[in-house]
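Two proteins follow. First one:
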Amino acid sequence: MTTAREIMTPDATCIGAGDSVLDAAKKLTDLGVGALPICGADERLKGMLTDRDIVVKVLGAGKDPAVVKAGDLAQGEAVTIGADDDAEEILRTMSEHKVRRLPVIDGHTLVGMVSQADVARALPDPKVGDLLEALST
């Protein structure tokens, strides 16, 4: 069975919890991605920051992105997947939590990201359809 490690994008780039949302937006732009893991000083995952978070929770709320810290937007424990978890587990986790991206963890170390597109390329068409339906409702 295909594992997260086999389909993930390796070397996920974190934004520091103490970095500004403006810095995060620049990093999103430079990397051409829609989400970044938020990591603390201990290099552990603290949450996820999406481009939508920036628009809705910062800009839309009239806050200054140069002042708001990325860590301020981390909510609760991040939904993750283990590096050796299989594609079915990735599917279940994404569907259950209605997320399009999952940080991939090996122990406590962030080793990559699995996106909805990664899953779509790795799974047979009917399973992909099930995932898209679950994320769209």
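Second one, unrelated to the first:
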Amino acid sequence: MSIPKKGTRKISVNELKFRWLIRKKATYTQSVYGIGKLHVAVELEENPKTSLLIHTDRNHPNDIETEIVNPIKPSDISNWIKQALELGWNPSKFGSPFRTKIVENKVELE
């Protein structure tokens, strides 16, 4: 399943071109319980096969307990993509989404 093109941003990592997306509208859990984190989806720009799902450690801006917003920058995305590739994510091979989480700015399998 590919991510919608509308609202995505482009980034190049290791000579591969990717699209990434952060859902702008908070889900109910991301806004009400005080535990909402930002999630990122990444896939190849052309012929996407397997997406990368990143559950970050960054608070969602709409979370009721978020006081300071720590934005996700393109450099974060680039770094996380490189780490996911090292963990075995193959974006040009069909398969289930590659689910990861960020712990102390390091990508770990979920």
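SUMMARY FIELD: The chain has one domain: 9-109. Residues 18 and 45 are 5 Å apart (CA to CA).
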